[in-house]
Amino acid sequence: MIIDSPNFILPERDERMASQIDVAPTLLSLMGIEHDSCLFGQNLQNTPHYKPRAFMANYLTLGYMESGLIVELRPKQQVRVVEAESGTVVDQSQPEIQVMINRAISFYQGASDYLLQYGAAEMGLPNNIN
After folding, report:
1. CA 128, chain centre distance (Å)
2. CB of 18 within 8 A of CB of 54?
3. How many CB atoms are located within 10 Å of the residue 104 CB?
4. Radius of gyration of the chain (CA)
5. Rounded CA gap, 67 and 96, in Å?
6. Residues 122, 129: contact at Cβ < 8 Å?
7. Tens digit of pLDDT per residue, the chain (130 long)?
8. Rounded (5°) CA angle 76-82-83
9. Three-class DSSP category at 69
C-alpha cells in the first residue's frame, strides 16, 4: 500500500501481507478517524491484532492465503490447497490444513451471510447479488 500525505503521515515501508479490504480501515486509522463499522478488513496500524492473510478471487475460484499456503474454493464445493511459492498441491488430511480450509470458508460464508441478513443496499451494493 502506498500513501502519499507528506504533511500528515510520516513515510514508512510496510512489507506485511494485506488485502484490498484492509485499505479502508487502515486509511481511517491513519487519518485518526475512529469507526465502528461492518468493514471486513484489518487495520494494519493495529499491530497486536494484525493477522497476515490475503483474499483473492477470479471468475470461479475464491482464494484465501496465510502462512505460505493458498486455499482455493472452487465450484461444486471442491477445495484445493497449494503452496503459494511453488504451486505444489498440499495434502488436505492434516488437521492444521483442515482448520485453514474451514477458516477460508468461514470468511467468505460470513460475508455472504452478512449481506443476506442486512441487505446489500445498506452497504451501497446492488440488490441482485444473491
Report:
1. 23
2. yes
3. 24
4. 17
5. 11
6. no
7. 677 777 877 777 778 888 888 888 888 888 888 776 677 888 888 778 788 899 999 989 999 999 999 999 999 999 999 999 999 999 999 999 999 999 999 988 888 887 788 765 665 555 554 4
8. 165
9. strand
**Long-range pairs, 22-29, Cβ under 8 A, ≥24:** 26/1, 27/3
Distance (Å, rounded) from C-alpha 53 to C-alpha 8?
A: 28
From the number of C-beta atoms within 10 Å of its C-beta (0-12, 13-18, 19+), residue 13 rates as exposed
With CA atoms as reference, report the closest residue to 107 among 21, 34, 16, 28. Answer: 21
Give the total residue count for the chain: 130
Q: Which of 42, 37, 39 is nearest to 17 (CA)?
A: 42
- Grid cell 480450509 is found at 101
Q: Which helix (H) or strand (E) holds 55?
A: strand 54-57
Distances (CA, A) of 121 to 80, 125, 127: 33, 5, 6
Q: Read off the pTM.
A: 0.75
Residue 89 main-chain phi, psi, to 5 deg: -70, 135
